[in-house]
Amino acid sequence: MTPGSPAVSGPPGQPSAGTPDSPGSQPTGLTPRQWAMVITASIGALLEIIDTSITNVALIHIQASLGATLAEVGWVVTGYAMASVVMIPLSTWLSGVFGQRTYFIFCLVGFTAASMLCGLAPNLTVLVVARILQGLLGGGLLPKAQAILFQSVPAAFQATTQAVFGMVVLVGPALGPTLGGLLTDTLGWRWIFFINLPFGLLTVLMALAFLEPDRSDDQLAAGVQRGLGRGGVDWTGIALLTLCLASLQVVLEQGYQLDWFDSALIRNLALLAAISLPVFVWWELRRRNPAVDLRVLRHRSLAAGSAFSLVLGMGLYGSVFVVPVFAQTVLGYTATQTGMLILPGALASGVTMALLGRVVSRFDPRLLIGAAALGMVATMFAMGTIGPDTGADALWWPLIFRGITTVVMFLPLSLATLGPLPRVDVGAGSGFYNLTRQLGGSFGIAVLTLALEHQQAVHRAHLVESLAITDPRLQQRLVELQFWLASRSGTGGTLADQALQVLSQQVDRQAALLAYGDVFRLVGLLFLAVIPLVLLLGKPPAPAASPGRP
After folding, report:
1. The whole model's pTM is what?
2. Does residue 38 have a pLDDT over 50?
3. Taking a C-beta distance cutoff of 8 angstroms, is the pair 316, 406 a contact?
4. Residue 518 is part of which domain span?
5. Can you give the CATH number for the domain in which 206 is found?
6. pLDDT digits (tens, 9 = 90+) for 402-447
7. Residue 20's closest CA among 538, 431, 540, 429?
8. Shared-domain flag, residues 201 and 96
């Protein structure tokens, strides 16, 4: 059995219940079992996705609770992302060896157990190790969930099932900060991990009950023997992949905290990633049974869609990262308020995905992707107009439009990228496609953080240059600040120095506002640059007509 290919049960030559588009059949709708499979796969993916962002609003609380520095607590995020991104491309090979259902359930059980270990962690070291385990065990949930949907649901209903899955992928990163903020402020940061226990156990039971069985025991044993036998495992490829992705992930996640290439660690890891990547590609292309099948990139739709997905990940995860930071550092929001600021956009994503799933098959997905990308460009430039009086009301509609346009890009992009692939390549293609979105998120956070820091310094320098001490307007402003300070403190001690400090803080805030505007416009320009890739995407096969329909 080829890794990533659908599991088949029943006598040879007889299609299983989950086999899509069996010859001579005309599906009229999803069966209850198929809907249960869709829900099971989607919840499994949601657990993994939410945990990529749920810790973002709790890091300060974790830092205070465990007595760590900001750089040290950053490894709570980095360890998870590093482990997850390594496992995504390996999930196809692992499911091919052990069986898709078996591997998916194993990931669910392990992810839930690792979540409990995170919540019980007595110190930062245990928490980081547990987060790495959580990422390793949860990294296979997202690509396997999407592969299960593509391989178990008839093509006539792929738009509906991918809409459900897309809702999970898009709403998850936005719900993470909201849920994390509520749990952290009400129950404590440990509950952002404990919350996985009931949902994890429920999903395991659903997977046991509804997912299609793997191959028979004899076939599975033969597959394990071939996969783990002498020369069967591509250990070199796995090692090169781990070196490349883990090094790159640490560079992206920790570069800002360690002053980028001023740090010897960042320089060495960047060099290691730069060397191991081409060696990994060369090695995998010459292997008959590689750990990661890069040959699937021969499909033009997958190559173009993965490149577009990289930018989509930057826009999705990058903006989800920037907006909470803006709300907490500039607007002074609490974790709960920050989560509630993002919630309307998440709800808009969910509603749009539900509506789009019903009609997306009537349109050329490439037209939808191009139109939504232009909408995202306009939305990002609108968010780039933030000013000193910007608050939740000013961000309400831009965040909602961001959620809508992201959905209108994501669902057609999945169909146009994976739909044209032969079913034997869907597993490997799904793994690579999800990997690019995950890497795009890491790239986005790193690039936007660097741009934010740089632009804030540039704008502050320009603002300070324009403040001449002999300017009557500046002198008047300082006098007004001194009167304001005197009315608050009731003393005339060092009011001049205090006024200068307040003015400096106001300059910092204005520089930050201008820098955030630049960052949002940068995201818009990135989407504008990748619109031509839409021309290279494929068109998914037309679904079989249902009875009574032409």
Report:
1. 0.69
2. yes
3. yes
4. 300-541
5. 1.20.1250.20
6. 888 888 888 788 888 887 888 778 777 877 887 788 778 777 777 8
7. 540
8. yes
